[in-house]
Amino acid sequence: MAAVDAPVCVDELSVRDISVILSGLSNDVVIPERFMVKEALRPSLSLLPSSDLPVIDLAPMLASPHGSAGGRADVVSALTRAAKEWGFFQVVNHGVPIELLERMASSGHDFFCLPTEQKEKGAGSNFLDGYAGKSRMVKDVGCMWLEGITLRSILAEPSAEQFANRVWPSGNPTFCDAVSEVGRELEALKNSILGLLAEGLGLPTDFFTRPFEELKAAGQPNAGADLRLNFYPACAQPSLALGTMAHTDPTLMTLLYQDTGYGLQILGKDGSSWHLVDYKRDGIIIFVNDVLQGWSNGVLQAGIHRVVLNRDRHRLSFLLSSRPPSELLIQPACTMDGEYCPPRYRPFTFGEYIAATSEYGHLPPENGRKGIDIYAGISS
């Protein structure tokens, strides 16, 4: 690209996706206007990693199948408190090999470094199927500065292999093996966390997992563990754009690993201050999602989060999103620890809710109300 003497805006160019933008711009170029979010949503980049955010050591749970009595109680208490207050926590000493997490991140970087034309071979039928490099315009917000891959139902379907065979002439066994191994490890960790949270609420340990098994036994295994890889390229004007806007995830639970660098921010308990998540090489980030908030009758809170950008460094994360069966009827748990609380949400199926998230779930939370509150909340 020829040198320029002043910032240049490329709004008028026909740009297919973020990777095309990157191939034609330098750090002196103004980002396209559609990526500039409205002023009220522009992020603060001066935050330091917050010491207030909960980091929970799961080592006591790994010492034996059930951990020591005292150690287990401490972990259950810490997880439940964090899920109630933040809807977020980071776990360490979780048993997932760090080598595997870094191998998955490395495979992701290898893909996003490919030429745009090759990446586009992995595109699916919609934004949440295969490769998506064309940012959607979010109403009243702007376009998000990211590329992504979504692989659906990775534990039940050969989605990784099908994706790899479209992108690479001879497939990519390294990528597929990493997806499969990461999926199994994170799914097992998710089930353990759900059991501990149920215990912390005074519910049966299998309260949040038993319905999945019952539907599978009845021949209705329409549930999924979806793997999503997000790539946030360095941005010349990070104070004007967002990697992802403030949101909650519409599923049950999300487990996320981020490679080097900062970018993930969590909305504080006061509902107004943002907290930068510290990077930990072996840390796995857990989000309570909308379905779990509704299922727990609002006791556990879905974590509101966003991603800010970096001027000098690309950033990658990958996550496992636990998608309940579409037929699963979510009925709020009204009796916890032996005490009854009137339902705060009406019963709903996951299929009904996920169909509505295009209208509700992807709106920026406002005044403390999230998509699940708008969709299923019962007015007092």
TrEMBL record:
It comes from the Eukaryota. InterPro entries: DIOX_N, IPNS-like_FE2OG_OXY, IPNS-like_sf, Iron_ascorbate_oxido_reductase, Oxoglu/Fe-dep_dioxygenase_dom. Residues 221-326 form the Fe2OG dioxygenase domain. PROSITE patterns: FE2OG_OXY. Transmembrane segments: none annotated. GO terms for molecular function: metal ion binding; oxidoreductase activity. Keywords: Iron, Metal-binding, Oxidoreductase. The keyword Iron applies. Belongs to the iron/ascorbate-dependent oxidoreductase family. This is Fe2OG dioxygenase domain-containing protein.
